[in-house]
Amino acid sequence: MDYSTYEIYDFDRISAFNMSTGYKERSYHLHWHSYGEILIVGPGEKNIYQVGKNTYELAENDLVLVWPMEMHAILDANREKSMVIQFSNAFINSLFDLQRIMHLYRHLHVICINSHPKLVAKLKEVTDKMQTIFYSDIPNRESRCCMLLMEFMLILDEHRSELVPEIDTGDHYVYTSDVMRRMITVIDYIKNNLTADDLSQGSMAEMAGISRDYFSRIFKNVTGMNYNKWLNMIRLDKASELLSEEGRTLTEVAMLSGFQSIPSFNRVFREEKGMAPGEYRNLFVKGRT
Question: pTM (2 decimals)?
Answer without folding.
Answer: 0.66
